[in-house]
Amino acid sequence: MEIWSAEIRQSVLLTVELAAISTAILLVLATPLAWWLARAKGWWTEIIASVVALPLVLPPTVLGFYLLVLLGPDGPGGWIASLWGGRTLAFTFEGLVIGSVVYSMPFVVQPIRNAFAAMGERPLEVAATLRASPLRTFWTVAVPLARSGFLTGAVLGFAHTVGEFGLVLMIGGNIPGHTKVLSVALFDYVETSRWREASMLAGLMVIFAFAVILTMTLVDKRAARAAA
Amino acid sequence: MKLLRSITIVAGLLLACASAQAAQTNVAVAANFTDAAKEIAALFKQKTGHEAVLSFGASGQFYTQIAQGAPFQVFLSADDSRPKQLVEEGLAVAGNRFTYAIGKLVLWSKSPGVVTGEETLKAASFAKLSICNPAAAPYGLAAVETMKSLNLYDALKPKLVEGATITQAYQFVETGNAEVGFVALSQLTGSEAGSRWVVPQALYNPIRQDAVLLKAGAGNEAAGAFITFLRGSEARAVIERYGYVLDGQS
């Protein structure tokens, strides 16, 4: 009896792929956003921050509903899928990436924003007096100083995408190799009383979650030591 | 003012008594039977005063939950094998199992003219065909059997998308995310919209939908009454109206 079946391997690989791609996109989008949020002074800053943070509170089913209806072929956002020649965002890997990016955004933006805010103006001013261009200051001063924020954001974004379930269940269509990620495969196994595979996946997720939390704690500790 | 308050109190007490007499039962209902079950539960309440609290899901999902001790007292499955298995495992009361409906599978599209018959499946000029999970939902299994009977399963497989229940399979077509889908005839009752092909019975095994009284409902008055009501003429009229065939007439 082979437990580590091709089916399970496929859903694990797919999940890792989804989380890795989503995290990469998240870092690219979240960095300028976090920079702006950390430094902007206007009253609207917190309004934008709240919009970004919405997925913290919203059930994933709300997002699933919108993706299905508004971005479906009959919805106002139906054209988005045609950007890569698709008919609909649902049932596609790309659709899951878009959903994950929206859904995990606050988990990436928040730690980076905090790290940018924590360094204060001083290092940037010093860099400016040394005639560093703003862009150079950003890359050689701000980013290295905020690296623990980036690390936390990346780990949380990755982990949160792995843990996504409701959204994928609603728009995925359970297609092996495309949308049947770990959490949905587990649901499937439980639904059909395949306990052996279910325990396998559930155990894997517990180990993964433990590793994530432990990593986060160690990163925090190191950052605190470095700051002290 | 005082009078009004005492009337309110008396009315409240009366209501409390009434609800204490009427019993409640938790019924697990296969998703394809959703609308019919709601109507039957309303009639059931009218006639007996008992309340049937309905939960909807895939039959396989309910089977797993019941095997794990879920507090359902009656199970309306979308097949006969799971109720039979529950009886054999001692989780359902023996001698109470009966076929309340025989389901019909339909290929459906929201747009007129898209579905014309089995040639729609052969031409396969659609991107996505939605079905429900064949491992957990009997209508999904019937859909797979149909495609296999037509020797089209391998060709259509890359286009299949799965809903967790038949309700989700329907909703994928309804929202336009899938152009066509295999759904239950009961879901299309009361609407002529779109285009449909009622799949001939020869292409799949009959969807015999069995009801059982579960062990948890053995002593429950409302659960027993619900099973009895489901066999009665009023419930049977509703079931027929939703496009099901009744056992013993076909």
Care to describe what's here?
The complex is a heterodimer of chains A (228) and B (250). The mean pLDDT of chain A is 89. Chain A is built from eleven helices and no strands. Chain A is mainly alpha-helical. Chain B folds into two domains: 23-102 and 207-241, D-Maltodextrin-Binding Protein, domain 2; 103-203, D-Maltodextrin-Binding Protein, domain 2 (3-Layer(aba) Sandwich). Chain B has helices at residues 2-21, 34-48, 59-67, 81-88, 118-123, 138-149, 153-156, 166-174, 221-231, 233-241, and strands spanning 24-30, 51-57, 74-76, 98-103, 105-109, 129-132, 160-163, 180-184, 195-198, 207-213. In chain B, helix 2 (34-48) links the parallel strand 1 and strand 2 (51-57). Chains A and B meet through helix 10 of A and helix 3 and strand 7 of B.
> Class by helix and strand content of chain B?
alpha/beta
Task: Give the radius of gyration of chain A.
Answer: 20 Å
**What is the string of SSEs of chain B from the N terminus onward?**
HEHEHEHEEHEHHEHEEEHH
Shape of chain A: globular
* Share of helical residues of chain A: over 70%
The secondary-structure class of chain A comes to mainly alpha
| CATH superfamily grouping of chain A | MetI-like
CATH superfamily of the largest domain in chain B: Periplasmic binding protein-like II
Helix % of chain B is 40-55%
CATH class membership of the largest domain in chain B: Alpha Beta
What would the principal axes of the Cα set say about the shape of chain B?
A: globular
According to DSSP, the number of beta strands of chain B is: 10
The CATH topology annotation of chain A reads as MetI-like fold
Q: Biggest interface pair, residues each?
A: A-B, 21 and 23 residues
